[in-house]
Amino acid sequence: MKIRIIYFGTSRFAVQPLLALADQPDLFEVAAVVTRPDQPAGRGHKLSACPVAETARACGLLVFTPVSLKDDALVRELEGLGADAFVVAAYGKILPAAMLALPRLGCLNLHGSILPKFRGASPIQAAIAANEAETGVSLMRMDEEMDHGPVYDVACVTVGPDDTFLTLEEKLSAAATNLLVHDLPHVAAGKIAPREQDHAAATYTKLITREDGLADWASDGAATLERRRRAHEPWPGLFTYWSRGGFSLRLTVRKAAALAEEPVTPPGTVFLTSDGYPAIVTASGALKLTELQLEGKNPQDGKTFLNGYPDLIGARLGKTAT
Asked: CB neighbours of 313 closer than 8 A, spacing ≥ 6?
């Protein structure tokens, strides 16, 4: 007997699991997809669909894009679809109690960490920033608290030394897909019992903001900043400000390497490495800029950048645009 599902998701992480469910109609029936409303994007501010909305529409699935889940009409409409389970993956909103109570198998969440570690909105970024060697995906039964419910199963993923948010998200999405397709029939058959989390060991992550990309050269070391750059790719990245010619210019670090060496100069000072790249003094070590981007310009190799802006060497970069 196939499992009837309503799928909640927004980001790229949620695309592969949705496609896997839709591609196996003998096992699963995706009755509807609930996702984020189309939002203005780009310079023209044209409405743009999120990855899950694009995928669901391409598959010919019924799509809901509610502004709020606390809509009685929406709850009634979803109830009328008679889903066995709600599957949630990187949706971005908390499901209210009235919605959690609808499906007979409950609401299952694919969370991008090994719970109870890294609960919250940014588990993938947190794993990279914390220099974790391993992270994973947890398939859990949702309750009214954030990432708090009991866990059915976990799939582990290695965090590589060069992984960025984008590459680790892709690996975790693949792991989530395998976990869901394998375990959901067993959950429906009552063959897997969820295990309560160790709530005392829980750690939490926060919603990433633009300001999380602003480098503090005096407080953070080079290795920390390099991990943060990878964790925040493509947004908000790692950036700083350069006062040049009476203007404060935003300078984004696109690629970098942490160096143990540092000259005896204040943090934020740019110097030239022995192989011809700009590097920035940090609280511990230096950050070699192998690719950087000045606001309004295209990204450039660090050496090439110096051809046009040789005065970057010796400049003092800071945290403010004023």
From this structure: 270, 271, 272, 278, 306
Non-local CB neighbours of 59 within 8 Å, separated by 6+ positions: 18, 19, 22, 30
Across-strand partners of 64?
A: 34
Q: How confident is the model at residue 45 (pLDDT cuts 50, 70, 90)?
A: low
CB 226 within 8 A of CB 287: yes
- pTM for the full model? 0.95
117-174 pLDDT, tens digit per residue, is 999 999 999 999 999 999 999 999 999 999 999 999 999 999 999 999 999 999 999 9
In order of their start, the domains of the chain are 3-205 (3.40.50.170), 210-312 (3.10.25.10)
CB 145 within 8 A of CB 172: no
Q: What three-state secondary structure class fits 122?
A: coil
CA–CA distance, 249 with 252 (Å, rounded to integer): 10
Q: Are 221 and 283 in contact (CB under 8 A)?
A: yes
Summarize pLDDT for 207-229 with one digit per residue, the tens. 999 999 999 999 999 999 999 99
- Write out the DSSP string of 154-215: EEEEE--TT--HHHHHHHHHHHHHHHHHHHHHHHHTT----B---GGG--EE----GGGGB-
Distance, in Å, from the CA atom of 39 to the CA atom of 279, rounded to the nearest integer, reads 38
Residue 297, classified by CB atoms within 10 Å of its CB into exposed (0-12), middle (13-18) or buried (19+), is middle
Cα–Cα distance measured from residue 238 to residue 226, given in angstroms and rounded to the nearest whole number: 8
pLDDT at 44: 67
Q: Which two tokens stand for residue 207?
A: 């919603």
pLDDT of residue 42: 67
Q: Are 65 and 35 in contact (CB under 8 A)?
A: yes
User: Is there a contact between 154 and 136 (Cβ–Cβ < 8 Å)?
Assistant: yes
